[in-house]
Design a protein that fits this description.
Length: 371
Amino acid sequence: MGYELAMKILVLSLVLVAVAGSIPPSKMLRRVPAAIYVFGDSTMDVGNSNYLPGKNVPRADHPYYGIDMPGSGKPNGRFSNGYNTADFFAQSMGFMSSPPPYLSLAPSSNNLVQTAFATGVSYASSGAGILDSTNAGKSIPLSRQVQYFSATCSKMVASKGSGAVSALLSRSIFLIGIGGNDLAAFANAEPAHSDVAAFYDTLISNYSATITELYAMGARRFAVINVGFAGCLPVARALDAAGACSDTRNELAAGFNGALRSLLAGLVPRLQGLAYSLADSYGIMAAIFADPLASGFTDVASACCGSGRLGAAGCLPTSAVCADHDRNYFWDGIHPSQRAASVRTRAFYDGPAQYTTPINFKQLVVASGTQ
C-alpha cells in the first residue's frame, strides 16, 4: 500500500472516530455493575492533586481549566478545558465520568467503599511517575497509588467480604496511563546515551511490579495507554529556536513504548487470566500531527491556554486563550484539549486496529463482562 493511500485511509478512520464521539454513551453500551480503577498522571487526574499539601504541587484549581466542563465551567482538578481521557473511557463504558479522586473519599470509609463498588476510584495524580523519585513530594507516585488501592480493598473486604470483592475486581477495568513525567525528567537531565537502557530497565521493572501487585489483589483486565509524542508537546517545542519537535524525546518515548509492549505480552503467560489492551498514544498523535485538518485541528503546536512561546509557560488566569477551544490539540503546554482527549479515547475504545494491541478497549470491556 502506498504512503498516500495509507494516509487517506488513516484520516478517514480518524474522522469516523470523531463522529462516533458524538454518540451518547447510553446509545453505545448497556452497563452492568462493574468498576473502573484509574492510575496515572495528570492526563488521568480528576482532582487528587488538589488535596495534596504544598505550594509546589501542580494543580488544575484555577481558570481556565474546566471552562468547558458541562454544568459548571469551573476548575475541577482536570488539566483540560473539560473532560479528560479517563472521563471519556468511563463514558464509553456507560458511566457519567471518571470515578472520583481517592483523596476526596478517603476521610469516610463508608463513602470510599460505596463508591469503590458503584463506580470505582481514581488514584491518578498530576506529576506522578513510575519512579518514586519523579516529582517527589509534589505528586502521588505509582507505588503509593497502588498502596491506596490496597487500603481501599481492605476496607471493601471488611465491609462486603472477600468473595464480593474478588468478583467485582475480576470484572473491573484497571486503567493506567503513566510514564511521561519520568521520561521528561530523564531528558531534562541530559543523560549519556549509555544510561538509556538502564533507565528503561528500571521503569519496566517497576511497571511490572505494579501490574503483578494489582493482579495479586484481584485485578485481571488492564487498559494501558503508552507515552505520547513527547517531543512534540508545546513545552518540548519551546526548547527549540525554530519550535520544532524534539527527535530525542520522541525516540526516548518510542523506546519505552516498545519495552512496555514487550512487558505486557510477557506477563500474559505468567499471570493466568490476565488480559490487556495497550493503546498507542504515540501513534495516534503522530498521525493527527501529520494531517491536523483531517481531524479538525488547526493548531497542534501551541497551547490554547498559555503564555510565552507556543503558550508553553502555563495556563493561568492571566493567560491568553484561543478563540475556538476545539481547534487546538493542546489545552496547555502538556495536556490535550477536551476534544483531543475525546478523539484519542474513541480511537482506543473501538477505532482503527492500529491504535490498540492485542485487542481494543471495548473488547477488553466485553471480555470482563461489563457490557
